[in-house]
Write a structure and sequence with these properties.
Elements: H1 10-19, H2 38-47, H3 57-61, E1 65-67, E2 78-81, E3 87-93, E4 96-99, E5 108-111, E6 117-122
Antiparallel strand pairs: 1-6, 2-3, 2-6, 3-4, 4-5
Helix pairs in contact: 1-2
């Protein structure tokens, strides 16, 4: 699925890079280029624009400015789910994210609504 991402900053570029990884498989612990886990996809997307992030959701949670409301999210923001922060994706706009969901699934676009949103993190403009 294609998705128009507004913006030309590093965050928007990282989100576009992540979108280009759609249909690659989820593999726990993977950082690409053929497969990814959720935090590995986020790490690799930002690495593609020269920003270093750790490969652990708990550490990614502390890597930038916190955003508590989905209404304040911008393309490229990291979006975290569940109180223990065990899942992360990249916001792409319009209430959607791109993410590597679970074993047996592939990277794809999904709605944020209806998921246990824990918060967002902005690491770049």
């Amino acid at each position: 699925m294609s998705f128009p991402i507004v913006g030309d900053g590093k965050a928007a570029q990282a989100a576009r890079w992540a979108l280009a990884q759609q249909l690659k498989p989820y593999v726990w612990g993977a950082e690409g280029p053929r497969s990814f886990d959720c935090s590995g996809l986020v790490m690799a997307a930002y690495q593609s624009v020269g920003i270093s992030l750790p490969h652990y959701t708990g550490d990614q949670w502390t890597a930038g400015t916190h955003i508590s409301s989905t209404a304040q999210l911008r393309p490229g923001d990291l979006v975290f789910f569940y109180s223990d922060l065990h899942h992360v994706g990249l916001y792409i706009g319009g209430g959607y994210m791109v993410h590597a969901p679970r074993t047996g699934d592939v990277i794809h676009i999904a709605k944020i609504a209806g998921r246990p949103f824990a918060g967002g993190v902005r690491v770049a403009d």
